[in-house]
């Protein structure tokens, strides 16, 4: 009995350590961090808009970490919970955030107005991209803080309302880090490669699954150095910065996805990837 007790006690600090949580920024394109239970070892499950969200133990409490899409309405939102056999709902408030406009000129007119063949390819691409974004695995992420996948210059911020050659297109749903072609891109956390391919707009792209719906996306790569199914560790090289797809210069377009929604990577970064001076 004594030995068993000793084992249990030594396991407790591991189970209940405080986590490095993302910032609570309940805005469109942001992350909501909400306490959902206290003093229970039973892992609660949570859903936002019918999709499972991350639930993690933080000291003696459980929190849900919810990704909010750029299209999110402000005002009341509802998180559904299951704790043991009980179903519950928690309401939380989404605040407003205004994102600036960005006007971009691209050389290839098909990147603004795709032809019939392009449209067929884009439709196929978006199926693959959509299922990678919605990927969910039960394993809890090792960390909710991500290391910068590459260091460079800020070229285009998250959330910008974009116009390509004067025409309104989807808002910018990732963080652009400009760096020279061939600069190695490193895994920001442990994960599994769930998709790798060449896409019309995104160019050479991979998706990493970090667990519980935390997925990261890497676009416009010059080279992909991993295969679908590979396991990667934090810091492993996964590919190289390039300018494949719809770009105006070499950069990494980095997407961070929580429960199927692209959020501002800034809220999960351990440090900013931007250097002060150009080169
Ligand atoms: Zn981008």
Keywords, please?
2 helices, 11% helix, eight-stranded antiparallel beta sheet, 279 residues, four-stranded antiparallel beta sheet, mainly beta, binds zinc ion, single chain
Number of helices: 2
Ligand inventory reads: zinc ion
Shape call: globular
Rg is 20 Å
- Extract low-pLDDT stretches: 6-17
Arithmetic mean pLDDT: 91
Strand percentage lies at 35-45%
Strand tally, please? 21
Please give the largest β-sheet. 8 strands, antiparallel
Distance separating the two termini: 63 Å
Q: What is the oligomeric state here?
A: single chain
How would you portray this structure in words?
This protein is mostly beta strands and 279 residues long. Helix content is 11%, strand content 39%. The chain has helices spanning 2-15, 116-133; strands spanning 31-38, 45-48, 51-52, 54-58, 61-67, 75-83, 86-94, 101-104, 153-156, 161-164, 167-168, 175-178, 184-186, 191-199, 203-211, 214-221, 223-224, 231-232, 237-240, 251-258, 261-263. The model is unreliable at 6-17 (pLDDT under 50). The protein binds zinc ion.
Give the secondary structure arrangement, pairings included:
Blueprint: H1 2-15, E1 31-38, E2 45-48, E3 51-52, E4 54-58, E5 61-67, E6 75-83, E7 86-94, E8 101-104, H2 116-133, E9 153-156, E10 161-164, E11 167-168, E12 175-178, E13 184-186, E14 191-199, E15 203-211, E16 214-221, E17 223-224, E18 231-232, E19 237-240, E20 251-258, E21 261-263
Parallel strand pairs: 8-10
Antiparallel strand pairs: 1-5, 2-3, 2-6, 4-5, 6-7, 9-12, 10-11, 12-20, 13-19, 14-15, 14-18, 15-16, 16-20, 17-19, 20-21
The structure holds zinc ion.
